[in-house]
Amino acid sequence: MSFRKVSQRTAALVAGISLLVMTLAAFFSYGYVHSSLVVADDVAGTWSNIQASLGLFRLGIAGWVVIVVTDLLVSWAFYRVLEPVNKRMAQVVGGLRLLYTLILAVAVFQLAMAEIRATDASQLMASIESFEATWSFGLIVFGVHLVMTGLTALRATYIPRILGWLLIAGGAGYTLVHSLYQFFPQWDTTTATIETFGSVPMMAGELAFGLWLLGKAIRAKRALPASWLGVS
Residue 201 needs a FRET pair 20 to 30 A away by CA distance; which of 33, 150, 169, 212 works? Predict the structure, then answer.
C-alpha cells in the first residue's frame, strides 16, 4: 500500500472530523455565546451581558481558537483529497482556505482583546465590532474557497456531483452576503434577510462534503489496488 493512499485516507478523516468539530464549536461560540451576549448597537447592554457572563465569553473565545486550528487542518486535508483531480486547483483551494484562516485568526485576536478590555464598555464594543468586520471580510474569501472546492469536485469522477454544486451554491452565498455587508452597509437589513433565508444552504455544502469524506474514509478498505478514492 503506497503512502499516497494512506495520506488520502488520513486527509479525508482529518477533513471530516475537523469539519464536524468546527461546526459544533461554531454553533457554541457564535450561535450561542456571541448571539446571547452581544447586542448590536447596544454598548451598555453588551457590556452588562459580558460582565455577568465573563466565563462564558472566555469559553466562546476558546471555541474560536478550536475553529482556527481545525481550519488549518482542513486547509491541508482539502488540498490532499483534491490533489489527484487537479494539483493546481487543489493548491488554490488549500491556499484560499489558509488565507481565510489567517484572517479569522486576526479576528479572533480582536475578540481576545475585547476580553482584556472588558472593564471599558466602549473599548470592548470596538473590539467586538472589529472582530465582526474582519471575520465578515474573511468570509468573502471563504466563499470563493468553497466555489473553487466545488468546481474542483465537479471534475472528480469519485465525488458525487451534487456535492460540487452544493459547495458552489454555498460559496456563492457567503461571497454575496458578506460582500454586501462590507461594501453596501446601507443595505444591512436586506442583507440580513438574505443571510437568514440562505444560512442553511450556505452551510450545507461544506458539511455534506465533510460527512461524505468521513464516511468514505471509514468504509474504505486498506487493500484497494488503486487509490482509495477511486483514482489511480
Answer: 33
Q: What is the pTM for the complete model shown?
A: 0.90
CA–CA distance, 126 with 107 (Å, rounded to integer): 12
Residue 230: what pLDDT? 52
Q: Which residue has the higher pLDDT, 111 or 118?
A: 111
Q: Which helix (H) or strand (E) holds 84?
A: none
CA separation for the pair 203, 199 (Å, rounded): 6
Q: What does the block give as the cell for 200?
A: 442553511
- Alpha carbon of 95 to those of 59, 111, 205: distances in Å? 29, 25, 19
Residue 59 CB: number of other CB atoms within 10 A? 14
Quick check: 97 and 145 in contact, CB under 8 A? yes
| CA 164 to centroid of chain Cα atoms | 17
Q: Which of 216, 219, 83, 94 is nearest to 155 (CA)?
A: 83
Cβ partners under 8 Å of residue 140, min gap 6 = 174, 175, 178, 179, 182
